[in-house]
Design a protein that fits this description.
Elements: H1 13-23, H2 33-46, H3 52-73, H4 89-116, H5 127-131, H6 138-142, H7 147-163, H8 182-196, E1 198-200, H9 201-206, H10 211-227, E2 230-233, E3 242-245
Antiparallel strand pairs: 1-3, 2-3
Helix pairs in contact: 1-4, 2-3, 8-10
Length: 247
Amino acid sequence: MGIPVKLQVFEGPLDLLLHLIDKNKIDIYDIPIVEITNQYMEYIRAMEKEDLNVMSEFLLMAATLLDIKCRMLLPKEVNEEGEEEDPRQELVEQLLEYKMYKYMSYELKDRQVDGEMVLYKDPTIPEEVLEYVEPVDMDALLGDLTLLKLNRIFKDVMRRQIDKIDPVRSTFGKIEKEEVTLPEKLDYVTDYARIHKKFSFRELLEKQCSKVQLIVTFLAVLELMKVGTVFIEQEQQFDDIIITSVL
């Protein structure tokens, strides 16, 4: 009778690979792919998971490791710059990125724990202090202020406001966003086609009052052609397009 062994729980295949790399004290930039693949496969065979979605992630990584293992046995590929490509490069980049985010999660967890140990106290300021208003001596505040000085200060403030005005942008008008929806134009073109039966595409576009309406009207005609509500014909290239309704 076998002895049941409780396996360590990993958050995903990259977490398992990092564990194997740390356990074997391996340089992440020079992974012995054969050794790591064998250990990874041993762990997969020992796993007992009811969740097939989770198990599929580990099996996908196993297939990736086997693919890299096979490519390591073949002659090395050379890129356009004449440099040899390492089949492990993409896996190394994924591991480094995962390791960075994992350590960031540890840092955030520590901050959360520290934050839970901080207590805050609501302010308890007496009402007398809150209602206190420091008296103002108007004579001392105004001092030797005269109407002439007030006028000079007012003109200085107004001059500064004028200097802030951009001479170029201040002449710009306001651009209003025109709301034109495709469903609205579909109803419009459908009604137009039901009434006119056969009409010019140019004539339909000339009735639109903006570039946005032109574009949405064109899209509406394409949609009606797609569903078979209308069909178009053109006798020669660059001739006017004639739209016929089947409604």
